[in-house]
């Protein structure tokens, strides 16, 4: 009956009354979440394999579309990519490769896909991270303001602007900014992440920041609306709460009631949702990277799509879906730390 | 009065109430008006735009003419009027938006009602599958599907439909659980109503309002997704859609040479339609869900 995992924990005794004896509830919670994430990840890998292989369309035929190739060349390509093997064998090879982070060779760049991903990961994280932080802060501040003064002119204007920007296709907004501010007014570079010939740490950082302004602005404009609407509605949910009436009855000023009482409670669901969104943001930057030719995973995905370069597309599918799964797992793990009520 | 007539009177009265509440929401009404206008333009487009004006070779305008009297929004690389293109593009964008939203809402409703009704392990399994689909990044999944299947409008509809249903399934399941907890379901069961009877005659009519609001919001998302896929070059090259026009404009160098009239109209069209659907959806949600109704 005794399981060693709970034995070393002093807290295991009294709290482990219900459920299986010996297992600390936190361990079970953690284990359950991790297990779910692992199963999801495996399912994503299986999907990625079958999606690109079993659905109609021969990768080799697609790759050589519009070019004249001999039957021998086609056969050689099939052998190179392991496509002449029976499907189960291909699947085993694919799984073994995934375990060792070997995603195969890129058709177009002729280098291992894992190298390409490692090289492009940094810029994507930089762009997505900066954009998310700015969008989250902006969304939280505006959402709180709107919710607290619901129905006011400011609320209606802020909500209207947010919903309008949310309805705008991000790629179009990016192109528009390029036309207006980059190729038109010449204020910002039109594409890429750095200019050639810039030396020195500080100068390089400044140059990258200069390149980042437009992509980050585009991303923030399109993304902040959802954070704002979530924060607005969770502030609204707290509005009728008794503890706010109590706080006011104590004679606290409106601003203090908002800052010390309403916001901390309203933040909880919002922060979780921001976490849940993080993974999605990584795949959402595909379009922005494409428009601004930002050297990240998104533009790699786009270039893989154009050829089509299956190993790249397949690996990035797993990476993008995997990042969502891992962020969801993190959100699940962080939530009990933030909210004492869920802690057991 | 017969039982059926009673039911219908009650439903009509409820609908009239909803309509009145909706009419009181200015944003929703504005969205509805804009949509009616654009829908009318899309439906009647064949009457005042002829095929020749939309073909690469038959258009009579010059290359990249700025907006003028002949062409209110200028012309594109092939001398086609951008105004004609945008009006024609509404047909594809709205069709894809509606069909994709219906496909995903139908699937989501089916799974949500079944999962909510049966509960237990079948319901759990269904919800786990839903959760898993919800985790897949929609854009990546849609792009992947559109990339492996043949390039057609149907592919785009399927790609959007397959990726967008989990939200609906969750919302519908929650609503199903709420409905099934009410006494009249127990009464129906006690009178011998089977699973199919309960789901079709009692649960479905009661989840329909939520489904309607969900559909409206999803159409906006589907239209944005369609534009995105077309922009990434995954659309049907033979059709004219808003995303496709933006892609053509970009490929024709409109960005670097400042041909703004080629790029701005289709983007504005997407934004206006998506915003209108969102406004309608939010208004509907507010009307149908008293918890969210604007308090004074």
UniProtKB/TrEMBL annotation, chain A:
<feature type="transmembrane region" description="Helical">
    <location>
        <begin position="266"/>
        <end position="292"/>
    </location>
</feature>
<feature type="domain" description="ABC transmembrane type-1">
    <location>
        <begin position="121"/>
        <end position="331"/>
    </location>
</feature>
<keyword id="KW-1133">Transmembrane helix</keyword>
<dbReference type="InterPro" id="IPR045621">
    <property type="entry name" value="BPD_transp_1_N"/>
</dbReference>
<keyword id="KW-0812">Transmembrane</keyword>
<comment type="similarity">
    <text>Belongs to the binding-protein-dependent transport system permease family.</text>
</comment>
<keyword id="KW-0813">Transport</keyword>
<keyword id="KW-0472">Membrane</keyword>
<dbReference type="GO" id="GO:0005886">
    <property type="term" value="C:plasma membrane"/>
</dbReference>
<dbReference type="InterPro" id="IPR000515">
    <property type="entry name" value="MetI-like"/>
</dbReference>
<feature type="transmembrane region" description="Helical">
    <location>
        <begin position="34"/>
        <end position="55"/>
    </location>
</feature>
<feature type="transmembrane region" description="Helical">
    <location>
        <begin position="163"/>
        <end position="188"/>
    </location>
</feature>
<keyword id="KW-1003">Cell membrane</keyword>
<dbReference type="InterPro" id="IPR035906">
    <property type="entry name" value="MetI-like_sf"/>
</dbReference>
<feature type="transmembrane region" description="Helical">
    <location>
        <begin position="312"/>
        <end position="338"/>
    </location>
</feature>
<dbReference type="Pfam" id="PF00528">
    <property type="entry name" value="BPD_transp_1"/>
</dbReference>
<feature type="region of interest" description="Disordered">
    <location>
        <begin position="1"/>
        <end position="20"/>
    </location>
</feature>
<dbReference type="GO" id="GO:0055085">
    <property type="term" value="P:transmembrane transport"/>
</dbReference>
<feature type="transmembrane region" description="Helical">
    <location>
        <begin position="121"/>
        <end position="142"/>
    </location>
</feature>
<feature type="transmembrane region" description="Helical">
    <location>
        <begin position="208"/>
        <end position="227"/>
    </location>
</feature>
<feature type="compositionally biased region" description="Low complexity">
    <location>
        <begin position="1"/>
        <end position="16"/>
    </location>
</feature>
<protein>
    <submittedName>
        <fullName>ABC transporter permease</fullName>
    </submittedName>
</protein>
From TrEMBL, chain B:
<keyword id="KW-0812">Transmembrane</keyword>
<dbReference type="GO" id="GO:0055085">
    <property type="term" value="P:transmembrane transport"/>
</dbReference>
<dbReference type="InterPro" id="IPR025966">
    <property type="entry name" value="OppC_N"/>
</dbReference>
<feature type="transmembrane region" description="Helical">
    <location>
        <begin position="125"/>
        <end position="148"/>
    </location>
</feature>
<keyword id="KW-0813">Transport</keyword>
<keyword id="KW-0472">Membrane</keyword>
<keyword id="KW-1133">Transmembrane helix</keyword>
<feature type="transmembrane region" description="Helical">
    <location>
        <begin position="207"/>
        <end position="232"/>
    </location>
</feature>
<dbReference type="Pfam" id="PF12911">
    <property type="entry name" value="OppC_N"/>
</dbReference>
<dbReference type="InterPro" id="IPR000515">
    <property type="entry name" value="MetI-like"/>
</dbReference>
<dbReference type="Pfam" id="PF00528">
    <property type="entry name" value="BPD_transp_1"/>
</dbReference>
<dbReference type="InterPro" id="IPR035906">
    <property type="entry name" value="MetI-like_sf"/>
</dbReference>
<feature type="transmembrane region" description="Helical">
    <location>
        <begin position="259"/>
        <end position="284"/>
    </location>
</feature>
<feature type="domain" description="ABC transmembrane type-1">
    <location>
        <begin position="90"/>
        <end position="281"/>
    </location>
</feature>
<comment type="similarity">
    <text>Belongs to the binding-protein-dependent transport system permease family.</text>
</comment>
<protein>
    <submittedName>
        <fullName>ABC transporter permease</fullName>
    </submittedName>
</protein>
<feature type="transmembrane region" description="Helical">
    <location>
        <begin position="85"/>
        <end position="113"/>
    </location>
</feature>
<dbReference type="GO" id="GO:0005886">
    <property type="term" value="C:plasma membrane"/>
</dbReference>
<feature type="transmembrane region" description="Helical">
    <location>
        <begin position="154"/>
        <end position="172"/>
    </location>
</feature>
């Amino acid at each position: 009956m005794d399981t060693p995992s709970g034995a070393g924990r002093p807290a295991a005794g009294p709290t482990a009354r219900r459920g299986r004896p010996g297992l600390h509830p936190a361990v079970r919670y953690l284990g359950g979440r991790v297990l779910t994430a692992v199963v999801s990840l495996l399912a994503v890998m299986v999907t990625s394999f079958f999606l690109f292989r079993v659905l109609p369309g021969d990768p080799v035929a697609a790759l050589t579309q519009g070019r004249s190739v001999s039957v021998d060349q086609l056969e050689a390509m099939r052998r190179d990519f392991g496509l002449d093997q029976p499907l189960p064998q291909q699947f085993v090879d694919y799984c073994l490769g995934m375990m060792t982070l070997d995603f195969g060779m890129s058709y177009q760049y002729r280098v291992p896909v894992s190298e390409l991903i490692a090289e492009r990961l940094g810029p994507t994280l930089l762009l997505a991270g900066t954009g998310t932080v700015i969008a989250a802060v902006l969304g939280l501040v505006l959402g709180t303001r709107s919710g607290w003064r619901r129905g006011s002119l400011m609320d209606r204007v802020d909500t209207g602007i947010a919903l309008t920007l949310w309805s705008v296709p991000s790629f179009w907004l990016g192109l528009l900014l390029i036309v207006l501010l980059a190729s038109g007014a010449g204020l910002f570079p039109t594409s890429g992440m750095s200019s050639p010939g810039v030396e020195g740490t500080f100068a390089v950082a400044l140059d990258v920041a200069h390149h980042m302004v437009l992509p980050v602005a585009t991303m923030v404009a399109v993304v902040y609306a959802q954070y704002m609407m979530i924060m607005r509605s969770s502030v609204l949910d707290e509005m009728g709460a008794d503890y706010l009436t109590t706080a006011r009855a104590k004679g606290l000023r409106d601003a203090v009631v908002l800052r010390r009482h309403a916001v901390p409670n309203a933040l909880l669901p919002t922060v979780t949702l921001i976490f849940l969104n993080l993974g999605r943001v990584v795949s959402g930057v595909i379009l922005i990277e494409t428009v601004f030719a930002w050297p990240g995973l998104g533009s790699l995905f786009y270039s893989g799509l154009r050829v089509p370069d299956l190993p790249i597309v397949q690996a990035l599918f797993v990476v993008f879906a995997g990042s969502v799964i891992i962020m969801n797992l993190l959100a699940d793990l962080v939530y009990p730390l933030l909210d004492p009520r869920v802690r057991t | 009065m017969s039982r059926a007539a009673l039911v219908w009177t009650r439903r009509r009265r409820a609908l009239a109430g909803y309509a009145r509440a909706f009419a009181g929401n200015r944003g929703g009404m504005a969205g509805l008006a804009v949509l009616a206008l654009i829908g009318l333009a899309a439906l009647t487009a064949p009457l005042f735009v002829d095929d020749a004006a939309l073909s690469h070779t038959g258009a009579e305008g010059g290359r990249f003419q700025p907006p003028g009297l002949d062409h209110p929004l200028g012309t594109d690389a092939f001398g086609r009027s951008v105004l004609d293109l945008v009006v024609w593009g509404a047909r594809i964008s709205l069709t894809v938006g509606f069909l994709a939203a219906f496909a995903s809402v139908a699937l989501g409703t089916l799974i949500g009602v079944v999962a909510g009704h049966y509960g237990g392990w079948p319901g759990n399994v269904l919800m786990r599958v839903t959760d898993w689909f919800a985790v897949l990044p929609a854009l990546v999944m849609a792009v992947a599907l559109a990339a492996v299947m043949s390039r057609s409008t149907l592919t785009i509809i399927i790609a959007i439909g397959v990726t967008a249903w989990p939200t609906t399934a969750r919302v519908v399941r929650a609503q199903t659980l709420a409905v099934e907890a009410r006494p009249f379901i127990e009464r129906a069961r006690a009178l011998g109503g089977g699973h199919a009877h309960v789901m079709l005659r009692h649960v479905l009519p009661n989840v329909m309002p939520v489904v309607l609001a969900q559909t409206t919001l999803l159409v906006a998302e589907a239209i944005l997704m369609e534009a995105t896929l077309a922009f990434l070059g995954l659309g049907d090259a033979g059709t004219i859609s808003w995303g496709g026009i933006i892609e053509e404009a970009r490929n024709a160098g409109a960005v670097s040479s400042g041909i703004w009239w080629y790029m701005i109209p289709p983007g504005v069209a997407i934004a206006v339609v998506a915003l209108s659907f969102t406004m309608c959806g939010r208004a509907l949600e507010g009307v149908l869900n008293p918890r969210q109704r604007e308090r004074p």
